[in-house]
Amino acid sequence: MAKSKDKTVWFCSECGADSPKWEGRCPSCGAWNTMVEERVSLRKSDGGARMSRSALMSVPQKVSEIKALDETRIHMPSAELNRVLGGGLVSGSVVLVGGEPGIGKSTLVLQNILSIKSRRILYVSGEESAMQIKLRADRIGRMSDNCYIVTETSLENIFRHIENIGPQLVIIDSIQTIASDEIESSAGSVSQVRECAARLLRYAKEENVPVMLIGHINKEGSLAGPKVLEHIVDAVLQFEGDRQYMYRILRATKNRFGNTSELGIYEMCQRGLREVTNPSELLMSRRDREALSGCAIGVTLEGIRPLLIEAQALVSSAAYGTPQRSVTGFDSKRMNMLLAVLEKRVGFKLGQKDVFLNIAGGLKVADPALDLAVIAAILSSNVDMAVAHGICLSGEVGLSGEIRPVTRMEQRVREAEKLGMETIIIPQGSLKGVDTSKLDIEVVEVTKVEEAFRRLFG
Ligand code: TYD
Ligand code: MG
Questions:
Q1: What value does the mean pLDDT take over residues 162-191?
Q2: Tell me, what DSSP letter sits at residue 261?
């Protein structure tokens, strides 16, 4: 007979490891102060779980003999989502879509599944009523007869619905709201999230049905719940953006079936999310107005797409003893490094200045090619002279103030040309083999920060 036995277990909220007692430091991942107490009751008969695991013994195969079936992918209606997924949703895969509350995760998923008319889809909502979802569907203006909505938070009931409906795609909104009866602790706790995700994963692999999990993120910006969640799923998509802006960026932070450098850009409109197919136009502030000091346009590469992005800086005398450094959308350590380079190599005394840096559009950029634009924006604000219209920059800045080449320069130059830029400042020798005289943009090659400065401000 099944026995019910309660016990207290300590879980690491970082990696999901468990321990019978509290520890200051997680014995598994080494994180400090992450152990949380949860009551766990195992209602299974003793040893049941262990039995079933070893009963499913698989047979070793030679690599050469494994049949590689062409992974079937479900084509997503949104081209941006499709690209971030690596060309569609792979059958039997589990994809986690994470993001802050209200960023538009439910909208993104609903909008897509309502356009897939050829497949039976089950949308499990633990957060909103069927009525609320219907209202959202009306707002988006799409309907489908093949999409079933159910408001449910019990994992066991969800599997019952799955059995009845036999869906070809399952959506769980959100993983933090569902709970299994087999575990005592409340929904959203480490043990529940871990168990529910593992059971859904098993279902996805056994039935070859893709499952999309929607997940919340915590204050620090990482996915709430144990890190194991990120390890067991096949792909993690982050939906991010700044509340002040209407732009939303979807990026894959992990993808077993594709590239993680791809990026999808959306705009939140009155009637759902709109794909932004030409992001460069949006990421630069309007070009018709007069040039302002402290702004510079950089050409970066996100995935395989070149993007023109505006860096904005404000340099002012420090109001208090300790100068402030504030950065959004760019690595703050990297900005400090660039400030040190400017101080040492170009002789600007920025040590006593407040420096604020912002990347327009709420985008977070990791491409080092933006360095040159960041430096130009800071210098421009410092000397209070605008960077002339039509100039953009692309290049990495090294510690000795040298401008270093970055990848795919030709593609970047062509994008800048296409968008009507007049001049691009790039590292020396990075356009080898390209006939620059044929380009409709002036190419200025520089080797040092000082040269770029002289070119920009005379
Ligand atoms: P939602 O998808 O509910 O966010 P999440 O699931 O990530 O919590 O998005 C909610 C926000 O989007 C809400 O503030 C309203 C806004 N919104 C629009 O602006 N236009 C729309 O068409 C829809 C459906 C939502
Ligand atoms: Mg939601």
A1: 90
A2: S
User: Which of 277, 310, 329 delimits the end of a domain?
Assistant: 277
| 266 and 289 belong to one structural domain | no
Residue 347 belongs to a domain with what CATH number? 3.30.230.10
Q: Are residues 21 and 133 in the same domain?
A: no
- Compute CA distances 352 → 156, 277, 317, 385, whole Å: 61, 42, 7, 20
**141 pocket-lining for ligand 1 (C-beta < 6 Å):** no
CB within 8 Å of 334: residues ≥ 6 apart = 368, 371
Cβ of 106 below 6 Å from ligand 1: yes
In contact, 370 and 300? CB cutoff 8 Å = yes
Q: 138 and 180, same structural domain?
A: yes
Give the pLDDT confidence of 377-422 residue by residue, as tens digits.
999 999 999 998 889 999 999 999 999 999 889 989 988 888 888 9
Among 277, 293, 325, give the residue marking a domain's end. 277
Least Cα distance to 89 among 216, 211, 250, 197 occurs for 211
Element (H, E) at 42: strand 35-42
Task: Please indicate, yes or no, whether residues 342 and 443 belong to a single structural domain of this protein.
Answer: yes
Partners of 173 in the β-ladder: 125, 214
**Alpha-helix runs per DSSP H in 255-308:** 279-283
Terminal-residue alpha carbon distance, the chain: 86
* Ligand 1 touching residue 215 (CB < 6 A): no
For residue 239, the ligand 1 atom closest to its alpha carbon is: 7
Q: Which atom of ligand 1 is nearest to the CA of 136?
A: 24
Q: Are residues 314 and 170 part of one domain?
A: no
Q: Same structural domain for residues 287 and 356?
A: yes
**pTM beyond cutoff 0.90:** no
| Overall average pLDDT of the 315-325 stretch | 86
- 3-state class of 9 per DSSP? strand
Query: Are 228 and 287 members of one domain?
Result: no
| Owning domain of residue 256 | 72-277
117, part of any domain: yes
Question: For ligand 1, is residue 243 a contact (CB within 6 Å)?
Answer: no
Q: What is the pLDDT of residue 307?
A: 85
Residue 153: predicted pLDDT: 93
Nearest CA to ligand 1 atom 23: 272
- 3-state SS class at 23: coil
Q: Does residue 95 sit in helix, strand or coil?
A: strand
Environment of ion ligand 2 (residues, CB < 5 A): 106
CB 214 within 8 A of CB 109: yes
Tell whether 303 and 392 lie within a shared domain: yes
Residue in the block written with tokens 């995760």: 105
- C-alpha 79/C-alpha 75 separation (Å) is 9
For residue 143, being part of any structural domain is answered with yes
